[in-house]
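Entry — protein

Goal — fold tokens:
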Amino acid sequence: MLHKVKIMLDTTADVKDFVGICEGIDEDVSIIDGTNKNYKVNAKSFIGVLCAQCDFTSLYAISEADIYTKLSRFAVEEA
């Protein structure tokens, strides 16, 4: 089952903390653009997540793992 969490990363420190948490998850974790699902980066890559933060319209973390608990501090409600 694919788990999906809408996230907000406001600062470079948020990106660093987010990537650090994702590195501790055994399964793959990716970031996708909420409006263009073809855009996807590895959530364990600092440069990838930093670029996504700047370029993606809205950020979603996706994984086969249940990631909400670990990423809850970055989670935002969907409109």
Observations:
- DSSP finds three helices and four strands in the chain.
- The two ends are 23 Å apart (CA to CA).
- The beta strands are 3-7, 29-33, 40-42, 59-63.
